[in-house]
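Hi everyone,

Forwarding the result from last night's run.
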Amino acid sequence: MEEKEIKQYATPDIGINELLQAHPDAFIALLECGMGCVSCPSAALETLAEACVVHGLDVDDVCDYVNKSIAEKESEKA
């Protein structure tokens, strides 16, 4: 059985604000990844990749986690 491909909501070059405006549920996923300051003023100007560098996180891992989290929330709403 093939694993269903997860839609790419979060990408390394998406702005934190852009991601949160489009998918407010991403806030919790980002916190769970270790980004405790996603609501700080600096985050409004950063891409996901830039924020990952600041927090010492792997951007691909964070994108995967956030995308899976958003996909789960989307399927719950459907």
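The chain has a mean pLDDT of 88.

Cheers,
N.
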